[in-house]
Design a protein that fits this description.
The chain is α+β, with helices and mostly antiparallel strands.
Length: 137
């Protein structure tokens, strides 16, 4: 499990679909992002229906609502989701109770460069109250 102490707001949860599984994937998602474009969600579950990849869970701790735990049976998906959350809105990131130093974060950024670029270009960053589905013309 990886933990991220976040600063508000978080990205639209749909960015994580692009990040973890790719654009246009058929993904089972559950959580509390309401309305759909919310940047205040606290609970997220994602599972790609088109592959055997395990699910990813991102959720706020009950006692410390700005500390998010990221879990997956895939260390790749767990690292990637936690890294993006940290880079987007995080203050600190830790694994097994040890804070990750900048040099370790840099190694992870290099390792997941392609996926991070895909997430940074995600259409879902443009979602808003007036345009919750920016991919629909």
């Amino acid at each position: 499990m990886i933990k991220v102490l976040v600063r508000e707001p978080r990205p639209d949860f749909r960015v994580f679909i692009d990040l973890l599984f790719g654009r246009g994937r058929n993904v089972d998602s559950e959580g509390d992002a309401f309305p759909v474009f919310s940047r205040e969600w606290r609970d997220l579950y994602l599972k790609d229906r088109e592959s055997e990849e395990p699910a990813v869970e991102i959720y706020a701790e009950e006692t410390s609502p700005l500390i998010f735990e990221i879990k997956s049976e895939s260390s790749r998906l767990e690292e990637l989701a936690a890294l993006y959350l940290y880079l987007y809105c995080g203050y600190s990131i830790s694994k097994d109770k040890d804070y990750l130093a900048d040099d370790i974060v840099s190694v992870l950024k290099d390792k997941y460069l392609r996926e991070l670029e895909m997430a940074n270009c995600s259409i879902w960053h443009k979602s808003s109250e007036s345009n919750p589905y920016p991919n629909i013309a």
